[in-house]
Amino acid sequence: MKIVKSFLAAGLLAINAGVSAEEAAEITVYRSPTCSCCEKWLAHLQQDKFTVKDIVIGDIQAIKAKYGVTAELASCHTAIINGYVIEGHVPAGDIRTLLKSKPKVVGIAVPGMPAGTPGMEMGTKKEAYDVVSFDAQHRVQVFNSYQGSQ
Known about the structure:
The chain is about 35% helix and about 25% strand. It is an alpha/beta fold. Strands 2-1-3-4-5-6-7 form a 7-stranded mixed sheet, with helices on both faces. Residues about 1-25 have low confidence and may be disordered.
């Protein structure tokens, strides 16, 4: 019985270690030195167990151009994770869905800076917004939608 319990405990540890490794995905975030909402978004990612590499850069537009983020998709920060581009205030759960489903897209984005998105909390005000995916031909599709509230 003692041996069985040891094997069960070892199995649970192995399962938990696998989950932890998945949860601790590293994301590199490029942001302006003057943007406070970016810092709040980084905190949102860290709360969801992402390991954040924070790169403060003067010319964020150059990063957006390098990774194919158009003006229509742009927000205040650009991140890279496992080869995908994450633009703007994308919820951590949507990033995890992207990493799990592995669609053939360049990345996902929340264009602009809608109130109520992670990092853009403004009391109880929450604008409706879409997280969109985009491909190399700049085709955009809705990845997830969020309802607003007042």
